[in-house]
Write a structure and sequence with these properties.
The complex is a heterodimer of chains A (612) and B (373). Chain A has 612 residues and is mainly alpha-helical. Chain A is 50% helix and 2% strand. Chain A is globular and about 90 Å long. The chains are: A mainly alpha (612), B mainly alpha (373). Chain B: This is S-type anion channel SLAH1.
């Protein structure tokens, strides 16, 4: 799981039983030497080395040029790095790896240069694109330890029909992100009767993508939503191409459903609450919004379901992302919102079984996530705590709110207790802004509005559980109000951020605060509370409308609503410079720990480290 | 030399410090030296047995709920309970005597133990065991003078230790909580809560609330700190992973204590019980966490039993209030689980006594080290 195997291991890769006999390696290396000398612009055959079975989705390898035994490092692929630069020392090819197949990863017809059987286009490509040399990158496609590359090398002319379609070649780069490395797609296309594609090329024995440990996300990404790539990092997918839509569809898209469904609840409360009866809001607004949110939920879920089916590895990477993992709660919270905001016309009494069905996924996800906080390896809370974690807590309170309004007793208390305990932990941790915490954004960002979510929903949940808006609910409500005010007066600092779909998720706390205020004004009927409830409602509605406008703008005018999702495409192994940096950081910690000679002293030594 | 030292993660550097005399002393396997090697971690055994005794007593008690499950339990002969109580009493007595011998003969290592971040929490364990035994005593009613005197006798050391340990957390320079906190620190909290429950049963509400608030306030701090898991705080060796079960022992005990104080299992108690149930589920779903510690039988295994007994106790109280099928089934499952685990541990102890006995004193080297500094 940790990228230990991936990081330049000096242990030699055990040759695959079906790999090149060493004779062929020799032959090919000889030919390489020949090309090296001639330095023809065409094509130096690119030799790829197949990494061991554990490495998966690598699209280019770099043979280090220093020595044959130097570690094989994997560089993320660049489409234009088709500059097929060769390692200067031909001896590098005497490694016992089978040479991979050379496939073109560009969408230029590869009919030319086939006699050399390499991804071609090197010459044409070099002319067309900027060659990017990074210490002799070797663009490779898939690593096929079990292919029969000798065929390729010896009989390059036998596969003229291997002229692939452009789109098919493009797809190959994303294979590592597909479910079962693209095998599912092949199965489906086989079922549909598409012509058999050359299997031996496509079959990759070891395209299992690398697992990306938590540390990698912190090292490679930055920004409040950990979605900006650091300069030293590279991606495993092409940066300049537009990726398949499913790959670009991130899980925070469920934030739209969250935002709209919470609006539906707001307008239902406005219509039914006695304190806002003077506004004469029609229940039709709730009905319309609810129907829209059902439709949105259906669309988003089906798209994401398709992504799970076809690009499971990408989904898995999102799950490992320290911030995105919290958005996996969003679909279930939306379902809960839909159940809470259901118009009276549709249904008045929901079956209690529905509550158990909706809470089960939240319960299971919680067991996993909170367990990780307590005892799971790298994902310690002092390191990964960030405002998005509120999404994992709010689910408890929303569930208990729904359950209590359905008339259940014990279940809502259960989830309220669990949510409260973990909320206390998260609240303290976020307020501390620990130095070891790498994910709390340094500048204000809309994600901070999630702070308001938990107390506002908790206050309503407690009111429903006890049947009365008592002191505990009021305490929670005032806390929510304070946090809201505290963020609103700093509105100036929420500037300069790139719009992202996740922003929709940050609107539901505002809506929640408005609903809580309406509930409070029903208890404490006063002009001020009524004015406050109307003001907050207006703010939240305007915010949602603005977001809607921004979304439409990005969708239809700028066409960048779904940009390439770089957060999931970071390489599992750090690039050399970041590797050194991380290694030196780890060394520093280890050194300090080893230095101390007694248990007590060890704590003193460890003390300042925490401040680092 | 290795087992207990490994268990407590004594750094290797210390192990090469002692002179030849000391090494010879440690290496001698005389009975006396083995007797002095019983560190406070052995009180886990007494904790478990006393917790079991309390569970059995509660199950046997006549209740207002004539539900079939409790009736089945009441069929158990009370002789079985008496036997268990006697075994618990004798074990606790024996362990206390052994520890006294250790204090007398090997005071330096006791002091070193007290300074250790894991060892210091187990100094609470004997007092907790005595209090549990007191509560489960078949012949002593809570409203008698004897009970009161004994309560004072056992609660005062807990209060004194509180002042020492909790005071250290926020005042002393070396041992700040973020570094020292580990799951065994919850034993200090449990000590306060057990004292609170015993006091509430006597009718002494103010003392009960006092100890309860001490326990809960520090539990809040500890809970947050443990969840945060600071970089330097992974100081618990993998052999001691069973102590993670204490995570759900503390809220269960809190729920029981509050139920005694408020004389009813109200919403607050329910919330604490549910929290402990959630933490139990969370730990049980992670068997990989305990794999390494399960390779070899050691006294750390006894850490499994006490939290299960306390959880079962809380489930019993819950089932009594919420009379439903689910609650009763839950109570039955947890009670059976705790009994089975305790029995298994007793069997293991009988079979592999050699593994359990201490072959060395893990703190004697710490004491050398403290002398050198």
């Amino acid at each position: 799981m940790d990228g230990e195997e991936n990081v330049g291991s000096t242990k030699p890769v055990s040759p695959d039983p079906e790999s090149f006999p060493s004779l062929f390696s020799y032959i090919t290396s000889k030919s390489v030497a020949g090309f090296d000398i001639t330095s023809s612009p065409q094509g130096d055959p690119v030799f790829a080395t197949a990494p061991e079975a554990k490495h998966g989705d690598i699209h280019c390898t770099t043979l280090s040029t220093s020595s044959p035994t130097s570690p094989i490092q994997m560089r993320p692929h660049h489409a234009h790095s088709l500059s097929i630069s060769m390692p200067s020392s031909p001896s590098a090819f005497q490694l016992e790896h089978s040479a991979g197949v050379l496939e073109s990863e560009i969408d230029i017809p590869c009919a030319i240069d086939f006699q050399l059987n390499h991804p071609v286009t090197s010459a044409t490509f070099q002319q067309q694109k900027q060659a990017k040399f990074h210490s002799q990158p070797m663009p490779v496609r898939n690593f096929h330890a079990n292919t029969t590359p000798e065929i390729k090398f010896l009989n390059p002319l036998e596969h003229p029909q291997r002229i692939p379609r452009n789109s098919r070649f493009k797809d190959k780069r994303y294979d590592s992100f597909k479910t079962w490395s693209g095998k599912l797609e092949k199965q489906l296309s086989n079922l549909r009767g598409k012509p058999q594609e050359i299997e031996e090329i496509d079959d990759a024995k070891n395209t299992k993508p690398e697992a990306v440990p938590a540390d990698r996300f912190f090292d490679a990404l930055e920004g409040p939503e950990l979605d900006k790539l650091k300069e030293s990092e590279e991606l495993v997918l092409p940066e300049d191409k537009k990726w398949p839509f499913l790959l670009r569809f991130p899980v925070p898209s469920f934030g739209i459903c969250l935002g709209v469904s919470s609006q539906a609840i707001l307008w239902k409360t406005l219509a039914t609450s006695p304190s806002t009866a003077f506004l004469h809001i029609s229940p039709a607004v709730n009905l319309v919004l609810w129907c829209i949110s059902i439709a949105l939920m259906g669309i988003v879920s089906s798209i994401y379901a398709l992504k799970i089916i076809f690009y499971f590895e990408a989904v898995r990477r999102e799950y490992y992302h320290p911030i995105r993992v919290n958005f996996f709660f969003a679909p279930w919270i939306t379902c809960l919102f839909l159940a809470i905001g259901i118009p009276p016309l549709v249904a008045t009494n929901l079956h209690t079984g529905l509550w158990y069905v909706l809470m089960a996924p939240i319960f299971l996800l919680e067991l996993k996530i909170y367990g990780q906080w307590m005892s799971g390896g790298q994902r310690r809370l002092s390191k990964v705590a960030n405002p998005s974690n509120h999404l994992s807590i709010v689910g408890n309170f929303v569930g208990s709110l729904l359950g209590a309004s359905m008339g259940l007793k014990e279940g809502p208390i259960f989830f309220f207790a669990v949510g409260l305990a973990h909320y206390a932990v998260l609240f303290v941790t976020l307020y501390q802004r620990l130095p070891t915490n790498e994910t709390v954004p340094r500048e204000l960002h809309p994600v901070f509005f999630l702070f308001v979510a938990a107390p506002s929903v908790a206050c309503m949940a407690w009111a429903n559980i006890t049947g009365d808006f008592d002191y505990c609910s009021r305490i929670a409500y005032f806390l929510a109000l304070f946090l809201y005010a505290s963020l609103s007066v700093r509105i100036n600092f929420f500037r300069g951020f790139r719009f992202s779909l996740a922003w929709w998720a940050y609107t539901f706390p505002m809506t929640g605060a408005s609903i809580a205020t309406i509930r409070y004004s029903a208890e404490v009927t006063h002009t001020f509370t009524r004015a406050l409830s109307i003001a907050l409602t207006a703010i939240s509605t305007i915010t949602v409308a603005t977001l809607l406008g921004l979304t439409l703008l990005h969708a239809f005018v700028r066409h960048d609503l779904f940009p390439n999702d770089i957060s999931i495409a970071i390489s599992g192994t750090p690039s050399k410079c970041t590797q050194k940096h991380t290694q030196s950081r780890t060394n520093f910690f280890l050194k300090n720990q080893a230095k101390s000679s007694s248990p007590d002293d060890r704590y003193i030594e460890a003390g300042p480290e925490v401040q680092i | 030399m290795e087992t207990a030292a490994v268990e407590l993660q004594i750094p290797r550097q210390i192990q090469v410090l002692p002179t030849d005399d000391h090494v010879a002393a440690v290496k001698s396997k005389s009975r006396l030296s083995m007797l002095t090697c019983f560190h406070a971690g052995y009180f886990r055994i007494s904790l478990s047995l006393c917790g079991q005794a309390l569970l059995w007593k509660t199950l046997i008690e006549p209740t207002t709920d004539a539900h079939a499950l409790r009736a089945v339990v009441r069929c158990l002969p009370s002789a079985a309970f008496l036997l268990l109580w006697s075994v618990a009493f004798l074990t606790l007595l024996a362990l206390c005597l052994l520890y006294l011998v250790r204090c007398v003969l090997c005071f330096r290592s006791v002091r070193a133990e007290f300074a250790h971040h894991v060892g210091m929490n187990y100094i609470f364990a004997p007092w907790i065991s005595w209090l549990l035994l007191l509560q489960s005593a078949p012949f002593l009613r809570p409203n008698t003078r004897g009970y009161l005197l004994l309560w004072w006798l056992f609660a005062l050391p807990i209060l004194a230790l509180d002042v020492k340990v909790y005071g250290q957390w926020f005042t002393q320079g070396k041992k700040f909580l973020s570094m020292v906190a580990n799951p065994t620190s919850q034993i200090t909290v449990i000590g306060n809560l057990v004292g609170a429950r015993a006091a509430a049963e006597m009718g002494w509400r103010e003392s009960a609330v006092c100890m309860f608030s001490l326990g809960i306030a520090h539990y809040l701090v500890l809970f947050v700190t443990l969840y945060q898991r600071f970089l330097g705080s992974d100081s618990l060796p993998s052999m001691l992973r069973p102590v993670f079960f204490l995570f759900f022992a503390a809220p269960s005990m809190a729920s029981l204590a509050w139920a005694s104080i408020s004389s009813s299992f109200d919403t607050c108690c329910k919330m604490l019980f549910f929290l402990s149930l959630f933490l139990f589920a969370s730990l049980v779903c992670r068997p990989a966490l305990f794999k390494r510690s399960m390779r070899r039988f050691s006294v750390a295994w006894w850490a499994y039993s006490f939290p299960l007994s306390v959880l079962a106790l809380a489930a019993t109280e819950y089932a009594q209030v919420v009379k439903g099928a689910v609650a009763n089934v839950l109570m039955l499952i947890l009670a059976v689980l705790s009994v089975v685990v305790t029995l298994l541990l007793m069997v293991f102890t009988a079979i592999r006594t050699g593994d359990l006995l201490p072959h060395d004193d893990p703190f004697i080297l710490c004491s050398f080290d403290s002398n050198l500094h």
